[in-house]
Amino acid sequence: MAQVREIDDDSIDLIKIFQLIWHGKWIVIGTIFITVIVVYFFLQTQTQSYFNATTDIRPISSVEEQQYNALNAFIKQLKPAKSEDATLNELELFTVNSEILHDLYIEQLGNGLLFEEAIVEHELIDKKDFHNDKSFNKAVITLASLIKFKEPLITSQQIYKYWQIKFSHSDEDKWKAVLSSVHLKAIDNVQEVLKYRFNTAVSIAKQKKQYEIDDTKIKIENAIMDYEIKTAYTLSYLKEQAEIARELGISKSDVEAQLFSTRNVMLNIEFDIPFYLKGFEAIEKEIELITDREDKKAFIDGLMSMENRVRDLEQDQTIDRVEEIFNSTPIVNNKNFSAANLLVDATKFERTNNDFLIIFLSVLASGFLSIFYLIVSNAFREREQT
Predict the structure, then answer these.
(1) Is the residue at 270 inside a domain?
(2) How far is 168 from 176, CA to CA, in rounded Å?
(3) Residue 14 within a domain
(4) Which residues contact 30 (CB under 8 A, 6 or more apart)?
(5) pLDDT tens-digit readout, 223-266
(6) Is there a domain that residue 6 lies in?
(7) 299 secondary structure, DSSP code
(8) Alpha-carbon gap, residue 339 to 362, rounded angstroms
């Protein structure tokens, strides 16, 4: 019986605990009430409450896109007209539309350096909270890495038509200032990228054009040189044939048909007629005409087409016209240029309010502690009585 009683004494008596709670209910209720009041007023003093911000990135409007129609139309007509002209290949690849601008803008936003600079500029992190620049810069990079980009998504459950920037912080105004700063820098960067690409394409086109002009002029010089060499060889041959004709007394080619035939009927063999059979009078006249030629270019095969090509290239104003049209676009006009629309003022802020959860947890904690106090104090009281 003693062992049974000992076991009963060491076991947990739930009824006894409930009795303690009931008798000390005002202590439990009072503790919970005071804790809730203290926690509530503490939460009210906290000015910073975190939010989840969502900002849409939308393409430029069709009206803004129309400002590039003249440039795109001019470049487009180069393709069929200049299909064999390699000098304008780079320009043919240069087109500007809302999709290209939007992609370049997203690419710039993906460069975390823009956000890092804006975070420092608008003091999203207080530098005074850090001991040195290294720890501060590390914190800036870490915070910038928390900025997320959400791609457009269309499913049966969710629809996101546009790119979105998502971020969590506690200061709406500073975050809007960061977004505005990043947007302006991204726009400037896209503008510079387009200028660089266009100027590079124009530079390559001009270089190719000049190279072709130079190469064609060299071909013309070579053709003239080849003509002079060929003419010298021809004159030497004609003089030799004229001397043979004089020695044979052949002044004209009258005897050619009587003495020779281009075909030996017996042997069925064809052979060339010796040139001196034309007679020295005809040969010497030909020598005289060749020697007295004033415009040698008329006798050079393909020379005219090469000279026409050089003239066409030198007079071609296509590149100048493209530059003129490009300079009239918003890319050069800083005031009207836009690569995308970042809806900073339309940013959606969703507060992460955990006040209820904090109060609920404080109720549980204070209730548990007050009950623990009742049990412990009762245990001490019983020990003192025994």
Answers:
(1) yes
(2) 12
(3) no
(4) none
(5) 999 999 999 999 999 999 999 988 888 888 765 444 544 444 44
(6) no
(7) G
(8) 51
Residue 60 in contact with residue 343, Cβ under 8 Å?
Answer: no
Comparing CA positions, the residue from 149, 129, 148 lying closest to residue 139 is 129
Q: What is the tally of structural domains in the chain?
A: 1
DSSP H helices in the chain: 2-10, 14-23, 25-45, 62-65, 69-76, 78-81, 89-92, 98-109, 112-121, 133-145, 172-248, 256-259, 280-291, 303-315, 318-327, 355-385
Q: Name the residue among 185, 112, 160, 156 with its Cα closest to residue 348.
A: 160
Q: b/e for 306-337, b at 16 or more Cβ within 10 A?
A: bbebbeebeeeebbeebbebbeebbbeeeeeb
Place of tokens 């072709």: 212
Question: Burial code of 227-257, b = ≥16 C-beta within 10 A, e = fewer?
Answer: beeeeeeeeeebeebbebbbeeebeebeebe
Which residue type does 292 have?
Answer: D
Give the residue carrying structure tokens 């001019």. 74
What's the rounded mean pLDDT across residues 120-135? Answer: 88
Residue reference for tokens 């890319």: 331
368 vs 362: CA distance, rounded Å: 10
Q: Tell me the Ramachandran region of residue 22: left when phi exceeds 0, alpha when psi lies from -120 to 50, beta otherwise.
A: alpha
In a domain, 102, yes or no: yes
Task: Give the domain range for residue 101.
Answer: 50-369
pTM confidence score: 0.69
Which tokens belong to 227? 């003509």
User: How far, in Å, CA of 108 to CA of 183, rounded?
Assistant: 9
